[in-house]
Design brief:
CATH superfamily of the largest domain: Aldolase class I
Protein name: AFP-like domain-containing protein
Number of strands: 10
Oligomer: single chain
InterPro entries: AFP_Neu5c_C_sf (IPR036732), Aldolase_TIM (IPR013785), NeuB/NeuA (IPR020007), PseI-like (IPR051690), PseI/NeuA/B-like_N (IPR013132), SAF (IPR013974), SAF_AFP_Neu5Ac (IPR006190), SAF_PseI/NeuA/NeuB (IPR057736)
GO molecular function: N-acylneuraminate-9-phosphate synthase activity
Strand order of the largest sheet: 3-2-1-8-7-6-5-4
Structural class: alpha/beta
Shape: elongated
CATH class of the largest domain: Alpha Beta
Organism: Syntrophaceticus schinkii
CATH architecture of the largest domain: Alpha-Beta Barrel
Distance between the termini: 57 Å
Number of domains: 2
Largest sheet: 8 strands, parallel
């Protein structure tokens, strides 16, 4: 990846509707995303009937009596629908990604030939899940939300041993929305230094400031939840960006990419001409006769910077004028 790879995390914001999923693909493409990502799962293989919804899910889905299983069953779309979505994305020219949440979904997505396996944070301690993904020998984007450095190291080890060697680590905080004080962007640097792998950032904060800041710290992948309308009912809509906001975020990231540059400290091309206009040269502050000694009383520094640099001040002092120098003239080495 040369440029920052930007993933529009549609997730389950299709609300179980393939038509809405295609609209999300279209909107992500218009916004400028490199990929649109969904979530592939068989609800019965992911949660038990007794599992409660997370607090943010309870807050965003008003049915107080609905279990987590009932909720995600409503948001499940079929493998056939995902095949249709993959074809749709290919035709539109945007990468199709989806995070699997069970072993059957891993094999399905592997056979669908997704370019990356995106491992959600909740699966970083799921050994059989990690091993299954590794066996597909594909590129892996591993989210590390809720994980310690030790847990991350173990997950990398399992993936490597199973056959996955091309990894990108995603720092994130698994809280929807994440308050800024819990983001800890500097942990990206820790991950990079600890494992020598490219890093990215999966964002759950409100707005676009934090993901843009992550790019300045070296994020090579940015993932952000994406919806057509934040007021839609569902667990993730309220912590997602609408299309215009997502477009603004991408435009800001592309500007930051250009602004980061090479890291080599040297004048920019546009500065070379300006340098002559705003830097200074050593100038005669009064008429100097041939044979006069150059001293601090008969020279000064003024623009433009096309003559002898003021950095040569100490070398010029004490020399004699070879011929008459008029007040205001830029000194040259031939004059002294």
């Amino acid at each position: 990846m040369n440029n920052v790879f930007i993933i529009a995390e549609a997730g389950v914001n299709h609300n179980g509707d393939i038509g809405l999923a295609k609209q999300l693909v279209d909107a992500a493409l218009v916004a400028g995303a490199d990929a649109v990502k969904f979530q592939t799962f068989k609800a019965d293989q992911v949660v038990t009937g007794e599992a409660e919804r997370a607090e943010y899910q309870k807050k965003n889905v008003p049915d107080k009596d609905e279990s987590q299983l009932e909720m995600i069953k409503r948001l499940e779309i079929s493998f056939a629908d995902f095949k249709e979505l993959k074809i749709y994305c290919d035709r539109k020219g945007i990468a199709f990604l989806s995070s699997p949440f069970d072993l059957e979904s891993i094999d399905f997505l592997g056979q669908l030939n997704v370019p990356y396996f995106k491992i959600p944070s909740g699966e970083i301690t799921n050994l059989p899940f990690l091993r299954k993904i590794g066996q597909w020998h594909k590129k892996v984007i591993l989210s590390t939300g809720m994980a310690t450095l030790g847990e991350t190291e173990k997950a990398i080890e399992i993936l490597n041993e199973a056959g996955a060697r091309d990894l990108i680590l995603m720092h994130c905080t698994t809280n929807y929305p994440t308050p800024p004080e819990e983001v800890n962007l500097l942990a990206m640097k820790t991950l990079q230094q600890a494992f020598g792998l490219p890093v990215g950032y999966s964002d759950h904060t409100m707005g676009t400031v934090v993901p843009v800041a992550a790019v300045t710290l070296g994020a090579r992948v940015i993932e952000k939840h994406f919806t057509l309308d934040c007021s839609l009912e569902g667990p993730d809509h309220k912590a997602s960006l609408e299309p215009s906001e997502f477009k603004d975020m991408i435009e800001a990231i592309r500007i930051i990419e250009k602004a980061l540059g090479t890291g080599i400290k040297k004048p920019a091309t546009s500065e070379l001409q300006i340098m002559k206009d705003v830097r200074r040269s050593i100038v005669a502050s009064c008429d100097i006769s041939a044979g006069d000694v150059i001293n601090e009383s008969n020279i000064t520094v003024k623009r433009p910077g096309t003559g002898i640099s003021p950095m040569m001040w100490d070398i010029i002092i004490g020399r004699k004028a070879r011929y008459d120098i008029l007040k205001g003239m830029l000194l040259t080495w031939q004059m002294v």
